[in-house]
Amino acid sequence: MNVKIQTSDSLNIMVALAWIMVALAWMHVVIKNECQDSNFELVEYHGCMDTCSNVNNECSHVWAEDPDVSWIDGVVSKITGKDVEINTSNGKKIMEKLTKIYPKDMEAPAGGVDDMTKLSYLHEPGVLQNLRTRYELNEIYTYTGNTLIAINPFQKLTHIYGSHMMQQYKGAPFGELSPHVFAVADVAYRAMVNEGKSNSILASGESGAGKTETTKMLMHLGGRVATEGRTVEQQVLDSNPVLEAFGNAKTVQNNNSSRFGKFLEIQFDKHGRISGAAIRTYLLERSRVCQVSDPERNYDCFYLLCAAPQEEVEKYKLGSPKNYHYLNQSKCYELVGVSDAQDYLETRRAMDIVGISGKEQEAIFRVVAAILHLGNIVFAKGKEVDSSVPKDDQAKFHLQTTADLLMCDAKALEDALCKRVMVTPEEVIKRSLDPQSATNSRDGLAKTVYSRLFDWLVDKINNSIGQDPNSKFLIGVLDIYGFESFKSNSFEQFCISFTNEKLQQHFNQHVFKMEQEEYTKEKINWIYIEFVDNQDVLDLIEKKPGGIIALLDEARMFPKSTHETFANKLYQTFKNHKRFIKPELSRTDFTIAHYSGDVPYQSDQFMDKNKDYVLQLQSLMETLNSTEPHYIRCVKPNNKLKPAIFENLNVMQQLRCGKLVLYGVLEAIRISMAGYPTRRPFFEFINRFGLLFPEALEGNYDEKATCQKILDRAGLQGYQIGLTKVFLRSGQMAELDAKRAEILNSAARIIQGRICTHISRKRFLAMRKASVDLQSICRGRLASKVYGNKRSQAAALKIQKNARRYQSRQSYKKLHVSSLVIQTGTRAMAARKELRSRNSNKASTLVQAQWRSRRAVIYYKKLKRGCIVTQTRWRGRVARRELRKLKMAARETGALKEAKDKLEKNVEELTWRLQLEKRLRTDLEESKAQEVAKMQNQLQEMQKTIDETNELLEKEQESANKNIQEAPAFVEEKEVFVEDTEKIESLTEELETLKTTLDSEKKRADDAEAKYHELKESKEKLANIESENRVLRQQAVSLTPNKFLSGRSRSILQDLHSGSINQREPSEVEEKPQKSLNEKQQENQELLIRCIAQHLGFAGNRPVAACIIYKCLLQWRSFEVERMSVFDRIIQTIGNAIETLDNNDVLAYWLSNASTLLLLLQRTLKASGDAGMTPQRRRSSSATLFGRMTQNFRGAPQGVNLAFINAYSIVEKIYGMIRDNLKKEISPLLGLCIQAPRTSRASLVKGAPRSVANTAGQQALIAHWQGIVKSLGKFLNTLKGNHVPPFLVCKAFTQIFSFISVQLFNILLLRRECCSFSNGEYVKAGLAELEHWCYDATDEVIANMRMLMTEDSNNAVSNSFLLDDDSSIPFSVDDLSKSMEQIDIADIEPPPLIRENIGFSFLLPRSD
């Protein structure tokens, strides 16, 4: 009994609690309804604070540029200086510069941020990743400050639209809810109501970005105001199918692109209710009517009419779109997923809705059909001159049909197309047009008719919607096509680009200019932020006078003006304008560098421009300037026009948009976050936030002081107070609103509490009585249910007991039977397994026995076969040995020839190796000389150059050692006793000679290694010289102020030396006289460089350039330590002049100048007491120039030493180049001079006399030798004409003759078929021709050469100097100076370029 009582009490308590909860819920509903009935409203204020966190720039997770996805994330694995190694997320490893990577925010929300001003890192990859993340979640809207970015989803997202979403955003503060187009519409409406000013919403973006759909969504703002019948919003939306049919067309980027600008005005009365609406259109693309590019389409209405019901098509005499010229220019006639027939019916229904009668509809489509027929009228030449007529019957048919549809006379229409009427004060003149002009007239008529039809439709729609001329405010929505650039851009694209430029300037003025001008006007502390302005483009287009439009108006005033004259006028006027570009391959096109990119325009149609388009644009800009703008930037995520595809490169291109990130969106974020986006006048601020500090209102303070006290009480930081306004940072307005809302909520709660208490008390008494009655009824009902439950529980227990017993019995029986079956099966399986095991053991035993027997048999057979093979091979070897002994006796006669061939082969191979070794060493010496020259200018690369030289020397030594080791192997042959012993002995002597040559080459390699060590020592000497240079620089700096400057100038120079001159005022720096002197000297040096770059010629036999350079160097004291830069530039100028030239005339000119300059520099050394320290050059030495000279110049001035070294280096370089050029010229001829032609061998063999050789036939046989002689004569004349020192000419010809002899000798050795008596006579005749040229030469150089040849021929020890080919420089400075006469440079006239310059007056000859 006790249990029952407790159960009943608990149940009673539970039931009571349940009813109490129901009562409380009902009471809450009643109270809420009562509050609403009593017109009480809970006041809530919401605010948000912008947060900004400091991030560390040294972040391991970064963004790097990628050509495929624009930006890719990765992790930094290694940092080397300014380079970073990154492991990207796609598994690649890349290297990037530190300046080109951006940190990645690893703490960013997974779903992105709704306002990009909240991004921790505001950069391109951060913005792109945030947009991509939200787009993947179907969050297509994102804020950037006060600007909304809308990404086209290319699908219907019903969950973010509808009346329930509009109710959520109705009255909500901007930024409190997720970004949405409804939020922008609501903000514009509330700003209009609260501030009493008209607003405008500008939707921009490229074609296909979703501007038109966004505009449709914005028109839903009319839904917030209840009206009777069809709302204005609904009427505007109903008119969209009509406007889209006649104003939209398929383009490359969008299947339903608006080809006109639309400004929708939603008009409101003074109470904020919609009172009317109007649609303003701008810049209809008239050229599309007559010209369509593939794969675009013409306006949709043409295709809709062709797809109309059959009776309509027959009535207008139409057919397939392929039959009409205005439509078949493109191969695109239908759109995938779009039914033109269905759209035609919907367009007719929309016309009915907007109030266009059936008669008017018929007239509209008659005009559309007439335009199609008009385009098929083709003209041909008429009987008169420059006249035209319809081409054929088909053209006449379309002409008649057009006249019938337009309800005009066909003849009058033909005259209008084929003739031009000019009205003068005296008479009316009619002039016939040629077929091309008639065609242009036809297209002009079609464009005009269609444009006026479109304007009529817009006026009809406006009349249907109903305009309110007395409206108080308006909200305008602008939908205009964005920036476009096609293959052919006419005047209409020019207008579109100009419109976008004006809109960009409007955006700049509101976001950038007005923002910062406001700060300047209010005189607050503000750091000016630079932004890109496009005012220069607007001035280029619309400036008066002098703009493109003004020039176009001027050109149209003259009857004879054409597009060519107009284009030429543009080229002349804007040839220096940075935004105007003239193409190279066109005489009528021009390009303008707009803010979004360069657009080429064709001026062909500019003379027929629409006169009123400037007025349209001016009206649009006046309307926008009179409203408060709001911006929506539409972005197209991909070019495939498909959902769920986000192409990073495409989006980033739209964001950047000509170096302005999304038309300045990121720039706007930067300025907004750095500035004060919220500003309020003093009186408005006090009226709104005065309740935060009531004591300030009671005191006698001015408005500025009152605002200061309110802000101090609120505890805000970073705000600014101007002259008339309060400027707040981003988020501070929300903080003040939150504090104000807290005070208002507290007051509202007190009032609401009192009223709600009274209502609740009254309702509570009635509810308490009702609850007591309900409780009594519920207890009775509950007791009855408890008794029935107990009876059911007892019966259930009894049934369960019997059922469980039965189930247990059945389970036991099944388990017993199953265990017996399992045991039987297990025993049977074990028995079968044992049987299989025994059978397998028996079988394996048999197999093993058979295998062992087989293996023994195989081994026996293999062993037997091996024995037989071994015996056979041994017997064969013994037999071959016996046979070889027998053949040795019979081979005695053939052994001589075999040995001879081997020895000749070895001689050829060793000779070839020797020549190759010489060439390698020559190339190595030249490379070393070049490396030494580089060491003078690049001391920091010395170690690397030494390492490379060391490697080359080691390889050379290894190659020489290898050749020495291999040489004996070629000559160690088995002695064979033959009869021709004299031939073998001569070959053996020649081999010994080659061995000796190899030994000498080995010694040269050792010498090269010794020179390498000298090179290392020269490096240390260079370091010492560099330290001496630094000391001399310090001494020069310290001595200069004391010697030349006053006390004030000396202090300035000391400041300059210590690096503090940058802190002085510019006026003090300008007072330094030394700076002007340096600038003047720098100008003189530049003038000297330009002068010597020209060919200055010679004064007698003296090169003018070398004399001028030397006199300038002496005058400027350029041989001092710190003043060698001018000589380095002179050497660089000479090097640039001869760098890639194969012209021996130019090389000879510079060789003469360089050698003369070298002689003058040596005279300077001798004057300094260093005549005995001139560098000597040994022919066998392979040491570098720097190593030979620096050890002898330690006592001379450093500037003279460096100048001397550079001058000697350039002489060596030019000498080698001019010598090698001649070698290249005669090398092809030498190969032809070794073998006589077949026709001449007979005469040569017979030993024809000298007189026969001089005949014309013999001269033809030695034509190749004559070519060599001609080249030598030309080379000699070139050197003489440029006054090259005779000593250098002699050395050059010595090496050339050596080259000729060595080449001939090598060719004879390598081509044994040329070693015949006839070829020998042929070579002898050629050499005789060469010797004859030498004897006939009158020049003293060749005479010296002839004497040298005579001495060498009489010398029994020498093998003739012609066989000594040496590619090194065969002279020293002393040899050159001894061979040249002293040069007097006093009377050298300066060239005209510097003669009149006062800075070079010292060059003028002076007469005492």
TrEMBL record:
Gene3D superfamilies assigned: 1.10.10.820, 1.20.5.190, 1.20.58.530, 6.20.240.20, Kinesin motor domain, Myosin VI head, motor domain, U50 subdomain
Residue ranges of every copy of the Myosin motor domain listed in the record: 111-616, 617-741
Cellular component, GO, one term: myosin complex
Start and end residues of each stretch annotated as Disordered: 1056-1080
GO biological process assignments: actin filament organization; actin filament-based movement; pollen tube growth
Boundaries of every Myosin N-terminal SH3-like domain copy: 57-106
Annotated ranges, domain Dilute: 1128-1408
Protein name in UniProt: Myosin-9
Keywords: Actin-binding, ATP-binding, Calmodulin-binding, Coiled coil, Membrane, Motor protein, Myosin, Nucleotide-binding, Repeat, Transmembrane, Transmembrane helix
Stretches of the chain forming a coiled coil according to its record: 886-1035
Pfam family, one: IQ
Binding site for ATP: 205-212
Family, per entry: Belongs to the TRAFAC class myosin-kinesin ATPase superfamily. Myosin family. Plant myosin class XI subfamily.
One Gene Ontology MF term: actin filament binding
Transmembrane regions: 12-31
Originating species: Hibiscus syriacus (Rose of Sharon)
SMART domains registered for this protein in UniProt: DIL, IQ, MYSc
Residue ranges, annotated region (Actin-binding): 617-639
Biased composition (Basic and acidic residues): 1065-1080
